[in-house]
Amino acid sequence: MEQGEIIRLMPEDTGKCQNIWGTPKGSEYLWLFRSQLEQGERLTFVYRTGEEYLGEISLMFERDDPDYTVPGKRAYLSRLIVKKSCRRRGIGSALCTYIFEAAKGLGFSELSLGVDLSNYAALKLYHKLGFSTILSVGEDRNGKYMKLLKQL
Predict the structure, then answer these.
(1) 8 A C-beta contact, residue 82 and residue 121
(2) SS3 of residue 146 by DSSP
């Protein structure tokens, strides 16, 4: 794994994640993401080397779907993304391990996530990291997905 550090993403630094996401400046998603950070709905950490952001992961505390969040008990792991050129180097695992500790420190005992069934690399990683309970299987406009649960 590349030598780097994991830091909390501040709202004013949201634009620095564009090289991970591949979103254009001024996109609606960027505005929504920053708004969620500012309002405390999302807690995001980034893996960086120097000033370059290579990966990102978030916790969300409220979702409309009760499979994903239970107040004070279950948080939702959102958007584990590693820059394409930096994948398979341990950055995703490092971000997950870091956020597991952050969630425990905030008093959560469970984490949930949603993963596309076609994303084999993510499914393998999440299984390896202990997301062993299948909450449900569904389908949306992006295809079939699973909701998974991990005990912290």
Answers:
(1) no
(2) strand
Following DSSP, what letter does each residue of 60-118 receive, concatenated?
Answer: ES--SSTTT-BTTTEEEEEEEEE-GGG-SSSHHHHHHHHHHHHHHHTT--EEEEEEETT
pLDDT value, residue 25 = 65
- pLDDT attached to residue 58: 95
Q: Say what the pTM is.
A: 0.89
8-state DSSP, 26: T
Q: For residues 86-90, give the mean pLDDT.
A: 89
The total number of structural domains that make up the chain: 1
Q: What is the mean pLDDT of the segment spanning 20-26?
A: 70
- CATH number of the domain enclosing 58: 3.40.630.30
CA 44 to CA 75: how far, in whole Å? 13
Q: Supply φ then ψ for residue 139, to 5 degrees.
A: -145, 140
Q: Find the mean pLDDT for residues 62-72.
A: 85
Closest of 150, 86, 82 to residue 114, by C-alpha? 150
Domain containing 62: what range? Answer: 5-151
Which string of DSSP letters, residue by residue, matches 28-47? HHHHHHHHHHHTTSEEEEEE
Least Cα distance to 110 among 79, 80, 139, 135 occurs for 135
- Distances in whole angstroms, Cα of residue 118 to Cα of each of 53, 77, 138, 139: 26, 19, 13, 12
